[in-house]
Amino acid sequence: MKQRPMNDLIGRWVRPEIQGLCAYQVPDAGGLIKLDAMENPYTWPEDLRRQWLELLDGVDVNRYPDPQARALKQRLTKAMDIPAGAGLLLGNGSDELIMMLALTLTGPDRTVLSVDPGFVMYRMIATFAGMAYQGVPLKADDFSLDVPAVLEAIDRHQPAVVYLAWPNNPTGNLFAEADVRRIIEAAPGLVVVDEAYAPFTDSSFMSEVGCYPNLLVMRTLSKMGLAGLRLGLLAGPGPWLAEIDKTRLPYNINVLTQVSAEFALRHEDVFNRQTRLIRQERARLFEALEGMPGVRAFPSEANFILARMPAARADGIHAALKSAGVLVKNLHGAHPLLADCLRITVGRPEENQAFLQALADLL
Ligand SMILES: *Cc1c(COP(=O)(O)O)cnc(C)c1O
């Protein structure tokens, strides 16, 4: 039998928009101080770890998990102050919820709208699902919302869903609450306020769930300190969530995640202590960056800081930091507004110190 060249087969059958994508890249961080992915740098106290392992010992992995994850949902409702009567949907990370939203809303001429620079998965998942993506540029000086431009784009594109990360990734700032409200009120479809960084700010739209017919609030446990468990949640009006739930794969939250997250949230105080430390370190890191020659740090309400390096030096500094043992995220080239920018996740004090020392040596 004659073998056909595989590239011809791929070229014929893989959707052109998928062929045109680059897969989400995660660099190898082996042996490096990891300040690139917004993880909580702290592990659990020893006694908590022991209790957790005991609990896992009683889990039967031969059985499917609770398809509704009832115990976990109850715990989340309390921990996240989800309003009584609100609907709640869980995802294998909030990324899966973004995917479920896309599957629910996609169709010819359906648009996802967000701001740029913003969270890259809004755009990527829109493409996976065959939706158009419109990104409205943020203001160049402080990454605030350009409200007239957003309202104009909403009017023109009639998006099925608008995503606003609040605080925003990768810029770290919190958009003005009044601006977000204007967008919720103007949007013809859903507005998802993505509160992935809720543990690091005092602001939230969670108490507003149910007050608008088109507002959904998304959270994740990843940035709080449970990135390895993969658990995201979407809160909003029940009838909306009932529709989105139809696209959920059965048992999407595995039994180890259900048991572990429920256990972790019973010990919220441990995580609250850790996030307080991270917020303190964020302030220290910000001041130190601001004091460096030619560096501009942008105020952050998240667990990372965006910082602009002296012109044309970000690539070199990023590589040199890596050689010095520190991995941060290089955003130079990701978007015109991010020229010369690096994004530094707040780590433990000694990790931040190692980063600051390595950077100071390079400037
Ligand atoms: C990290 C991040 C997420 C993804 O979180 P997972 O729950 O780990 O999938 C979602 N939105 C924003 C804005 C993020 O920065």
SSE blueprint and pairings:
Layout: H1 6-13, H2 16-19, E1 33-34, H3 46-57, H4 70-79, E2 87-91, H5 94-105, E3 111-116, H6 120-128, E4 132-137, H7 147-157, E5 161-165, H8 177-186, E6 190-194, E7 215-220, H9 222-226, E8 232-236, H10 238-245, H11 255-266, H12 268-290, E9 296-297, E10 304-308, H13 314-323, E11 326-327, E12 329-330, E13 341-345, H14 349-362
Parallel strand pairs: 1-11, 3-4, 3-5, 5-6, 6-7
Antiparallel strand pairs: 2-8, 7-8, 9-10, 10-13, 12-13
Helix pairs in contact: 4-11, 5-6, 7-8, 12-14
Bound molecules: pyridoxal-5'-phosphate.
What's this model, at a glance?
This protein has a seven-stranded mixed beta sheet with strand order 2-8-7-6-5-3-4, sandwiched between helices. It has a four-stranded antiparallel beta sheet with strand order 9-10-13-12. A two-stranded parallel ribbon has the order 1-11.
Task: Characterize the structure shown.
The chain is α/β, with parallel strands linked by helices and 363 residues long. It has 2 domains: 6-45 and 269-362, Aspartate Aminotransferase, domain 1 (Alpha-Beta Complex), CATH 3.90.1150; 64-266, Aspartate Aminotransferase, domain 2, CATH 3.40.640.10. The protein is 41% helix and 15% strand. It contains 14 helices and 13 strands. The protein has a 7-stranded mixed sheet, sandwiched between helices. A hairpin with a 6-residue loop joins strand 9 (296-297) and strand 10 (304-308). Helix 5 crosses helix 6 (120-128) and helix 7 (147-157) packs parallel to helix 8. The chain is globular. The structure holds pyridoxal-5'-phosphate. Residues 38, 93-95, 119, 165, 169, 194, 196, 220, 222, 227, 232 line the site of pyridoxal-5'-phosphate (PLP).
